[in-house]
Specification:
single chain, about 650 residues, alpha+beta, 6-stranded antiparallel β-barrel
């Protein structure tokens, strides 16, 4: 039952009246409450006006705990096994450069510690596709059901032991309270008894660990001896077979030509050794993967993708809250209560915070954490005693001025000396130029993002006026006729269908990219790569209404401007030429379809829809809705290779459906 503001204030006042540290400690254990000076403000609501930072709670809390503490440290994902396959799958992703990248060795010591941005990327972009694929590739076969049974039994043993220890602790505490009432002597004797029991239990646990380690070491030695003996036996058999073959060849030389040779005895088949010994000497027979793990992780991913949306509806918040509660409940069954942290409880209140304060991006601390990262990279020259802040401020201003100067020089003519100097400064490493180059690179990224963020619609400064290909011209004519049947047009090189058809001018202006709602979408044929060209488009019906809109997923090939005023309105028109992915209609064993908020779709590998598709190939630029990330996955028992995409747009799923 949730507390009210009045109850919280009363508990805080009770805490304030306590006089000993022990009493305060016990009070916090019983009621999880301390006194706060904010309670002196009569208008401050201690329940509804306190918020938990979503960045630390969800990404540095839940996601990090699940992937690193449970899977990596718990050896569910093992080095040189599942983690290696995981790294290979991550390397196959195509996504916009603005999204950032994960370390190549994530989960390994060489991969370092991930930032909150990277945990966000793992849980909402990479993870929803890669985790089900990883389990599909590495999960043991159906005849290994005993492994899962052992895991369930182990969790039950841990839970039983935990409950036993909790009961014993409570009984000891009650016994101490009772002995304290009888006097100091009884209290000291009771404490000695409890200490002796703890010492005895610790000795028993230590003996059990030593016996288990000795048994394990003996088993490893036995397996190593068997493996060595098997290897020696196979080597001896190969040598014997080689000698027999040589003796047979020698005998064949003295036999008459019409005498058939005796058949060689068949060598014993080589039996593969089923024991796999890891680099650290541990036998790796036991798999830690559970078939319910992917669905559990996808619940967390689905909730996070909903909560990250820029617009939240009541239905969105309800769905996210349900998914988080289901995720935590299933996590208890899969791994036991030992993996549950306070963040798992705090996450159940995120829905309340979203209702009280709006979308998470309005009150999470990503911006301040990124600024902290920048400040921590500055050299402080070991200043202290109040000088540290001054050093930070001076260093910050010095680097900002250097960055502004560098990019001011870069805007000068390309062949000029100042521009060449600026380019050389940017190419210099951070070791050669201190932190100036690093800050310059950071400033460039921030400048680009900031420049795009304030623009609802803009075209790249770089452009080229040239002739459209015949195919593009015909597709454009088809699209314009479909949109405005009363104003028919045709490609100038084709015969008009109706007498009053207007011939299209093939001259057009082609652009590198377009900025739509602060995001850059590149034309792959113009720039030569497609990482920022994979998009989700929402195409309205022929009357321009949204009720009958269709969703298209594909690649932006060209972005161009047509200056011919065919509608006599004195305005140019802007278009994008698309090629749409071809949907894959096979059966999938992965549960992506159960989580609509993930927006994962499957497509035929390296295949696109033809020009006769119902979705127009030439679309208006404002039809582009958001970027896509794409990778190749294997589906079904036959391991059919298909494309999988995930939508990167942060819009309300229910509003899109509407």
């Amino acid at each position: 039952m949730e507390r009210t503001n009045l109850q919280q204030r009363e508990l805080g006042e009770q805490y304030r009246q306590l006089t000993t540290p022990t009493a305060c400690k016990n009070f916090v254990k019983d009621f999880a409450t301390r006194y706060t000076q904010l309670s002196r403000l009569p208008y401050f609501d201690l329940v509804n006006q306190v918020v938990i930072d979503p960045m630390h709670n969800l990404f540095l809390g839940l996601v990090k705990t699940h992937f690193y503490n449970i899977w990596v440290q718990g050896k569910v994902l093992r080095p040189n096994h599942e983690l290696t396959a995981f790294h290979d799958m991550l390397a196959n992703f195509t996504l916009p450069s603005a999204c950032g990248k994960l370390p190549k060795d994530i989960g390994m010591p060489s991969g370092g510690s991930l930032t909150a941005d990277q945990w966000l990327l793992l849980s909402t972009v990479y993870g929803p596709i890669v985790i089900p694929q990883l389990w599909s590739a590495c999960l043991p076969s159906a005849d290994s059901d005993h492994i899962l049974q052992d895991r369930v039994a182990q969790i039950e043993r841990l839970e039983t032991e935990k409950a036993r220890q909790a009961e014993k602790k409570l009984a000891d505490r009650r016994a101490l309270d009772a002995a304290k009432k009888q006097g100091k002597e009884a209290y000291a004797l009771e404490r000695a008894r409890i200490a002796k029991e703890k010492e005895s239990e610790a000795a028993e646990r230590n003996d059990a660990r030593l016996k288990a380690a000795a048994t394990k070491q003996a088993e490893k030695a036995r397996l190593a001896a068997e493996k060595k003996a098997e290897k020696a036996r196979l080597s001896a058999e190969k040598k014997a077979a080689k000698h027999r073959k040589k003796a047979t060849n020698d005998a064949m030389e003295v036999l008459p030509s019409d005498t058939p040779p005796e058949p060689l005895p068949s060598a014993a088949p080589e039996v593969p050794h089923m024991t796999d010994v890891g680099d650290d000497g541990e036998e790796e027979l036991k798999f830690g993967l559970h078939p319910d793990d992917p669905a559990n992780f996808l619940k967390l991913s689905g909730a996070l993708r909903i909560l990250m949306q820029h617009t939240l509806l009541d239905a969105d918040i309800d769905s996210a809250d349900t998914l988080i509660r289901q995720y935590v409940t299933e996590l208890l069954k899969l791994y036991g209560s030992n993996v549950i942290k306070p963040n798992h409880h705090y996450a159940t209140h995120i829905a309340t915070f979203a209702r009280n304060f709006g979308p998470l991006h309005d009150f999470w601390t990503f911006l301040s954490e990124r600024l902290n990262k920048v400040l921590k990279s500055f050299k402080t020259n070991n200043h202290g005693d109040g000088e540290l802040e001054t050093t930070f401020f001076s260093e910050f201003h010095r680097m900002c001025e250097s960055s502004r100067l560098t990019y001011a020089l870069l805007q000068m003519p390309k062949e000029s000396l100042p521009c060449e100097v600026a380019e050389n400064m940017l190419k210099a490493s951070s070791e050669e130029r201190g932190t100036v180059a690093a800050l310059a690179a950071l400033s460039k990224e921030l400048d680009e993002v900031d420049a795009d963020a304030g623009q609802t619609y803009a075209l790249s400064p770089r452009r080229q006026k040239t002739s459209m290909t015949l195919e593009t011209c015909r597709l454009l004519a088809k699209a314009l006729c479909f949109r405005s049947p009363l104003t028919p047009v045709h490609c100038r090189s084709d015969r008009p269908v109706v007498p009053h058809s207007i011939p299209l001018d093939r001259k057009a202006t082609f652009f590198d990219y377009v900025v739509i709602k602060g995001k850059r979408f590149y034309a792959s044929r113009t720039v030569g790569y497609n990482s920022s060209s994979l998009v989700h488009a929402v195409i309205p019906d022929s009357h321009g209404h949204g009720e009958g809109s269709r969703n298209g997923y594909g690649e932006v090939l060209e972005i161009f401007q047509l200056d011919q005023d065919i509608h006599f309105v004195g305005q140019s028109m802007w278009f994008a030429r698309m090629r749409w992915f071809k949907p894959w209609h096979g059966e999938s064993s992965v549960c992506w379809e159960d989580f609509a908020s993930l927006s994962v779709h499957l497509w035929e590998l390296e295949e696109y829809q033809g020009s006769d598709t119902q979705i127009p190939t030439i679309i208006d630029l404002d039809c582009i809705h958001g970027h896509l990330a794409r990778t190749t996955v294997s589906i079904g028992a036959d391991q059919v290779k298909v494309w999988a995409t995930i939508n990167l747009a942060k819009e309300s799923f229910y509003s899109l459906c509407a």
